[in-house]
Design goal:
Chain B: Heterotrimer of A, B and C subunits. The complex is a heterodimer. Chain A is mainly α. Helix content of chain A is about 30%, strand content about 5%. Chain A has a domain of about 35 residues. Chain A has three helices and two strands, in the order αααββ. Chain B is about 40% helix and about 15% strand. In chain B, strands 1-3-2-4-6-5-10-11-9-7-8 form an eleven-stranded mixed sheet, sandwiched between helices. The longest helix of chain B is centred in the C-terminal third of the chain and has 23 residues. The chains are: A mainly alpha, B alpha/beta. At the A-B interface, α1 and α2 of A face α10, α11, α12, α13 and α15 of B.
């Protein structure tokens, strides 16, 4: 499988990274090099093999369903590039 | 007293307890060394001198009161990936410009609880993606080592290149680091230092900027096996805030260091003998076998048949997880924002400007392999191969192998701006060929300096252990360190 220029643009938009026209061919080459490298995985016989889902065998811990943290909105927005009254500010999304 | 900064953690601790010098004097000696070296080495991206001296003062009070913690007054460097409250934490990325967390990572909190103090934040590859520390927004770290008869700057390895360079050049007594595919062990091997990647789940990931969550693990880089063990004892431990943190007791790692290897069975995997591997790496490996044999270990040839698939599987799993983890950097909650005509435009421009090339490349790969229609062919296949890689190790351990000896890296350090690696990302990725299997299987691994190449550059050996058996790695690592009996300190040129 190899990616074409349109796919590079489409991945960029899925990843929310602006890819300028001048960058497309470089990305295309690099992605195809990496995809070519990982292609060898297809030769491994994985029939009957379960995908690895946890590194160490352990049951997922659960905690009580209670509020255990929070109540400090000013800390949450302290690093925001733009905030007002403890809200994150973004460009208008609803007309 | 001069050159306090050259003491080991163990010796500095003794000196502090015996009142030969104060934590303030020790800290000042490190701050002086940083001031002199950092313009050349670029190991620190932020130096927190005032905070370090304040912490040292508190340590001196505790030492005087006989209430010293296990690492009381020991000055450490912290990789820029760990959240440190109120202090520069940017994963060496432009996109986290100005980020100062409101909280402290669990690993660093554990170290401060035990009396250690912070000298500053250490340079690294951006978001820990790299093997040479050249992808940092703050520029490359320069290795304290140079080839004999050469003035050319070499890489310290990566991604924990700042940690490795700072430890090696005596700019901290030890450093925190992280390892996703080899990022502790490869830079340790390049700089003649000791690097331990613990078992997945041994150190909490809470408060550490995430790269690939199923692979990331924190660990120490130090100047000796004993120092690494001392740091590990403080860094490790169960943390309810990390759902993959494992609830088991932290052993007395320091007590295991001098345990020796008598009666151990050590595996030598034939698949690690790569085509085109330099003779000096092969010789080093043989030398390691001889040293461990002389101390009473038995050797066994083993096979880990899926080794060659670890790196390609890694370059699916790690970018896939990274593309998800790095989705949070969008110009809204923290860091850089580049304005656009609407919100999508803002996201795209912010991420295009904020991430470096290697990070963007990996996000793109991750997004592609997770996208509709490709998930089974790439990600699912890679996770199945990962099961097979883990099974290879399990079979070796079940057959009576206690630990596995391999080279740490396929070569010594290379030059900054190496053209072959810049032209082909896969060439750079091959640096991690011996270390990445360990992350894929979640096992512990240690890199110990064991020899030098023809140009006097350090080379390391790696030991791979059973889950949660870091103690055997410290014991066997110490035998290599003691048998090599070489001086791995750089000749100061900076």
């Amino acid at each position: 499988m190899s990616v074409d220029a349109a796919t590079v643009k489409r991945i960029g938009s899925l990843a929310r990274i602006r890819i300028e026209d001048s960058e497309v061919s470089t990305y295309q080459d690099e992605l195809n090099t990496i995809l070519g490298f990982v292609e060898q995985l297809s030769e491994v016989d994985v029939s009957g093999v379960e995908p690895m889902t946890s590194v160490m065998p352990m049951a997922l811990r659960r905690r009580d369903d209670v509020v255990s943290d929070g109540g400090y909105p000013e800390k949450i927005v302290a690093n925001a590039p733009l905030s007002e009254d403890n809200f994150f500010m973004v460009p208008k999304v609803v007309e | 007293m001069s050159e306090l900064n050259k003491l080991s953690i163990a010796a500095a601790r003794k000196g502090l307890l015996d009142k030969q010098f104060s934590a303030t004097e020790l800290t000042s000696s490190y701050l002086d060394a940083i001031g002199a070296a950092n313009p050349s080495l670029n190991a620190y991206v932020a130096v927190t001198g005032d905070q370090a001296l304040e912490m040292a003062k508190a340590s001196d009070a505790k030492l005087a009161a006989g209430a010293a913690g296990p690492l009381e007054g020991i000055p450490l460097g912290v990789k820029d990936l760990f959240a440190t409250k109120g202090v520069h934490t940017q994963a060496a990325s432009h996109i986290l410009d100005g980020f100062t967390p409101e909280y402290e990572s669990s690993v660093t909190a554990n170290l401060w609880r035990d009396g250690a103090l912070m000298l500053g934040k250490l340079n690294m590859d951006e978001f820990a993606m790299g093997s040479s520390n050249e992808t940092s927004y703050y520029g490359p770290v320069v290795s304290p080592f140079r080839a004999e008869g050469s003035n050319a700057n070499l890489v310290p390895g990566g991604s924990s290149g700042g940690s490795a360079a700072a430890v090696s050049a005596w700019l901290c007594a030890g450093a925190t680091a992280t390892d996703t595919g080899g990022s502790i062990r490869q830079p340790a091997a390049f700089t003649g230092t000791v690097g331990m990647k613990p078992t997945y789940g041994r150190c909490s990931r809470w408060g550490t900027v995430a790269f690939a969550s199923s692979l990331d693990q924190a660990g120490p880089i130090a100047r000796s096996v004993e120092d690494a063990a001392l740091m590990m004892m403080s860094m490790s431990g169960f943390d309810p805030k990390d759902s993959t943190s494992v609830d088991i007791a932290v052993p007395d790692f320091a007590a295991a260091v001098e345990r020796g290897v008598k009666g151990l069975t050590i595996g030598v995997p034939r698949e690690y003998r790569m085509d085109g591997m330099p003779d000096e790496i092969e010789t080093l490996w043989q030398q390691g076998i001889e040293w461990l044999k002389a101390e009473g270990a038995t050797f066994k040839d083993i096979s880990l048949p899926h080794t060659k698939y670890a790196l390609p599987a890694y370059y699916i799993v790690a970018p896939a997880e990274a593309s998800s983890n790095l989705a949070r950097y969008d110009g809204v909650k923290y860091g850089l924002r580049v304005s656009g005509k609407d919100i999508t435009d803002m996201y795209e421009l912010t991420r295009a400007a904020g991430f470096g090339r290697e990070v963007k490349r990996r996000i793109m790969i991750g997004t592609y392999v997770l996208s509709a229609g490709y998930y089974d062919a790439y990600y699912l296949q890679a996770q199945k191969v990962r099961t097979l890689i883990k099974r290879d190790f399990e079979e070796a351990f079940n057959a009576g192998v206690d630990t596995i000896l391999t080279p740490a890296t396929p070569s010594a350090a290379f030059g900054i701006g190496d053209e072959a690696m810049a032209a082909d990302p896969v060439k750079m990725y091959l640096n991690d060929v011996f270390t990445v299997t360990v992350n894929m299987a979640g096992l512990p691994g240690i890199a110990v300096p064991a020899g030098k190449d023809g140009k006097g550059l350090p080379l390391g050996l790696q030991l791979i252990g059973k889950p949660f058996d870091e103690e055997t790695l410290f014991a066997a690592g110490r035998v290599i360190e003691r048998s090599a009996a070489m001086d791995f300190s750089p000749k100061a040129w900076w």
